[in-house]
Amino acid sequence: GADVAQVQQTLMAYMAAIAVCQLLYGPVSDMFGRKPPIYFGIGLYTVASLGAAWAPSIEWLTAFRFLQGVGACASMSLPRAIVRDGYTGAQAAQLMSLLMLVFSISPILAPLSGSIVLQFGDWRVMFYVMAVVGGLSLLLLLFGLKETRPKEARLESSLGGALRAYWQLLRDWRFIGLSLIGAFGMASFMAFLGNSSFVYIEHYGLTPTLYSLAFSINAVSFFAVSQATGFLVGRFGLPRVVRVAVTGYVAAMLALLVLFLAGFDGIWTLVVLMFIAFGFLGLVLPSTGVLAMEEQGEIAGSASALMGTLQMVIAAVVMGIVGAFTDGTALPMVIAFAACAVATLVITLVTLRSNPRPIATPAAAPAE
Predict the structure, then answer these.
(1) Predicted pLDDT of residue 155
(2) CA-to-CA distance for 135 and 47, rounded, in angstroms?
């Protein structure tokens, strides 16, 4: 019996928890290892999923969705730290691109899998399935993931150290700059996720099936090109890959804006140029993530958490602004794309105007 606004609040509660609570998991993982907080997070997510399935009202559903977000963000924020524990340079970039593959393919599969689940019951069945997925994830964590933060590395970690780590990261303009490059890039992709259905279906008149195809084309470009990150970084180095990828991303997004302002409001204009832009973006995100984490080995958990929070907060702000200016056309979304692209270019020019420190390329075996 809830209205649309109340249902949207359940999603906002989930996203807000993911954005903020990453800041807690990062330092905790530095102090106690990577696996214990992920155990807690996935366990909480599983229990909250059952609570959501049994929720007697929209208010209880919103509360359990918030708890779901508190749990879910552990497995979103800590993988970057796990990669950094064992690898740097090109191999870290390759692993980051694999993480990007998982995180970016999920939104493509989610609507399809959700529609299949709903063939077997109402919305409560969806949360039962989430609980089962949480249980399976706990089994994967138990048998498939080794601890990468050895005990000797945790000796200097404490609550006070966590606060000092965040203060250190906030004063590290290189880390913040690289995180913001990825954040604005991710914001453009999230703006696409949040508004593409309205644009493609309501503005261009596509059927839901054709919309899924058009959406997939653009998303596939994003995660497919990202798989070349490791090879390109190994050959050209992280800073150069970032500069070239950002340049290509900006050029495609500005070309899209110019064409739309000139009156070329066509679906093929949008799809083709977004395909190009998101391909370059697929290189930007993993390479900036690795470059930002290169010198944060001792506080990798805190660094990964802060980076994730910046990305989620900026993406949420951009999505909110685009939603506020929605007029039934693609133009507000395209303007947001261009604005995010220009922001990434300016920050890249400032952050990577020089690269005085060599970038490590060897790989170290993860700690048992």
Answers:
(1) 53
(2) 10
